Here is the input.
Amino acid sequence: MKKVIFLDIDGTIVNGSNVMLPSTELAIKRAMAKGNEVFICTGRAKGEVNPFLLQLGFNGYICGNGCYIEADGKIIYNKVFEKEDLENIFRFLDERNVKYFVECEDCLVAREEIKEHGNIAAQRFLRAVGNPHADERSFTDLFPSVRFAEDLHRDDVNKVSYLVNDEHLHEECEKAFPQFNNSLWGQDIFGEIGVSKVNKGDAVRMVLDYLGVESENSYGFGDLDPDIPMLQACGTGIAMGNASERMKQTAHYITTEVDDDGIWNAFAHFELM
Here is the structure.
């Protein structure tokens, strides 16, 4: 029976330095060669997915925490902001002097003015995840697909991400935009307003319905709390050894850390390759 495997990116198949172990790549390739389908399931926009990951030929992608879903080369779900909603968000953030960028299907777009504050935020985040070269990195190193433009109004925006400049900002965003998906990530250095209330779990169920596969034949792999709905939607949820405590409590199985052959070991344990 074919299995469907959903993989988070950061902290799951790549480490804090954005490096993937050879054993992880080999496990993914062997799983697909066995006839299983393997999907990326990430908070990143499609344009943020590393080229070396795209080259692996995944069967599909869940991006933006579920705002965008692609399977077998077809876009089966893509929720974008209405023009008026986007303008309201921009106005709200501008009034609070918050630096932000938009996440679209094929790229990120930001104003040039974000660079100074963005560099500091990127370095803080990379230090937090243990990147030894954090102090040498920049905003564009963390987000290599970013393009710079003064006008951020586009018709393909799934998320508006921002640099947190006040401890109450996230709460204010939730009050101002309860109809959207508000969340924090990266040690609460970054916040985001997603167009849809859909989460990774909802997206997993959409993919399984599209493929006609029962949830009992699905496996989800992740490391942080936004991955919890994905694990709950899958028949078997696997937490990385470096996962949050909530993730580990939710998971059916805990593998080793991302840099300790975590994917390979779990794929071997469940005979996915």
Notes: The chain has a mean pLDDT of 94. The domain at 83-194 is CATH 3.30.1240.10 (Hypothetical Protein, Haloacid Dehalogenase-like Hydrolase; Chain: A; domain 2). The chain has two domains: 4-79+198-269, 83-194. Residues 21 and 112 are 34 Å apart (CA to CA).
